[in-house]
Amino acid sequence: MFDIKWIRENPDAFDAGLARRKHEPLSAQLIAQDKTRRAAETRAQEIQAERNRLAKEIGQAKARGEDASAVIEQVSRSKKEQAVAEDQARQASEELTTALMSIPNIPASDVPDGGNEDDNEEMRTWGTPRVFDFPVKEHFELGEALGQMDFETAAKISGARFVILSGALARMERALANFMLDLHTTEHGLVEVNPPALVREEALYGTGNLPKFGEDLFKTDDGYWMIPTAEVPLTNIVAGHIVETDYLPRRYTAMTWCFRSEAGSAGKDTRGMIRLHQFTKVEMVSVTAPEESDAELERMTGCAEEVLKRLELPFRVVKLCTGDIGFSAQRTYDIEVWLPGQDRYREISSCSSCGDFQARRMKARCRAKDEKSTRFVHTLNGSGLAVGRTLVAILENYQQADGSIVIPEALRPYMGGLEVIPAHA
Residues 183, 187, 192, 197: what is their CA dihedral angle, to the nearest 10 degrees? Predict the structure, then answer.
């Protein structure tokens, strides 16, 4: 969310930032709404000041033994007038907040302009895609042939975009999550958290998932929302708090189930595990002082990359353009893993810096020791990694001609020493 004072002082810069997202200019509308709000607040304050003056006048009149009924009647009328003005101010403030809540973050200056993913900027690649001497299969063909990836039964139980993993594949998903958590906590300095998977709507407003993306979320009948990512509860740990800068950055990681309705994905990735309603993800969240966030994004991206390096999975890193960047992000690096079954790179992690966009919504601040003034913190988030998509990448990159799957060496200790998932007999 934006500071309306900044918008008043920098209307052209604000509209120019929105224009990079192909968004219509909004400064004039917002400034007009703010003017209405401030006028109503000023009117309420003036009425209050006048009533205070009249109250003194009443006291003085009574002390002199004079009739104060006319002034008392005037005070009574002013109470009603003030209530009207306060109600107008409250309504104007709510309308302005609603408008500000629906506006996406402004991209950083180094974010490339573009309309969609085709305009993203490749930054680097790692690893060489394997050359196969047999026809490669996609992950769902391999998993179903193993008898350990069942979409049909999952559909009978829950509907489309669900899967049942069993045997070695179920163990591999658990092993991947444990491997990622161990790497992030023991080598990357993140603190493991086990957060709630159900949150109040305020938490989703704080991270920018609401109000704009409500249709992509699942909601319970009693007002709770199922998290689309652990970013939501992890980032909200600092909501409403003032954190001493000596205790920053704060770095969190969590493994959770995530739930998304995929409302805008009709016809996309309808087969397989790429786009499910329920999936497992290891998330990373950092809370930093403003001057540290740029370096923290590079660090966080490196943490996610290291997972793929340890698993020896080829990948590339791209900087998202203005037409592909997320609602709350100022800058985003996508890590895309090579999937030979699809003969292309697919996203497996998005690492984003949000500046103070989420912090303003959450009222999360920091303060230097022995200082009174506060600043909004900066927040960052990134997948470290999407566990199901990592399993997909292992199946496709480590497949053998007979349908068996070699286990990456780094994962074998988490698989009880298993080196190969044998082909289904």
Answer: -40
The answer to whether 346 is a known catalytic residue is no
Check if 93 is active-site: no
Average pLDDT of 131-139? 97
Q: Looking at 260, 299, 331, 346, which residue is catalytic? A: 260
The class of domain 117-421 in CATH terms is alpha beta
Supply the DSSP string of 115-143, one letter for each residue.
Answer: SSGGG-EEEEEES-PPPPSS----HHHHH
CB 286, CB 249: distance < 8 Å: yes
Is 350 one of the catalytic residues? yes
Distance CA 378, CA 397 (A): 37
For 4-101, give the CATH class.
mainly alpha
Select which of 41, 46, 262, 347 is catalytic: 347
Residues 6+ apart with CB under 8 A from 422: 404
**3-class DSSP assignment, residue 246:** helix
Mode of pairing for the β-strands spanning 405-406 and 420-421: antiparallel
Considering the chain, what percentage of its residues have pLDDT values greater than 90? 84
> What is the per-residue pLDDT for 78?
76
Q: Where are the domains of the chain?
A: 4-101, 117-421
Residue 127 tokens, joined: 């690893």
- Average pLDDT (407-424) is 96
| pLDDT tens digits, 284-294 | 999 999 999 99
Which tens digit of pLDDT belongs to each residue from 58-96? 777 677 777 767 767 776 777 788 888 889 989 999 999
Distances (CA, A) of 110 to 51, 124, 408: 54, 16, 37
Catalytic residue chosen out of the listed positions 8, 38, 130, 275: 275
Q: What is the pTM of this model?
A: 0.92
- Catalytic residue from among 350, 352, 353, 383: 350
Clarify whether 161 is annotated catalytic: no
Residue 275 annotated to the active site: yes
Q: Running DSSP on this structure, what letter comes out for residue 217?
A: S
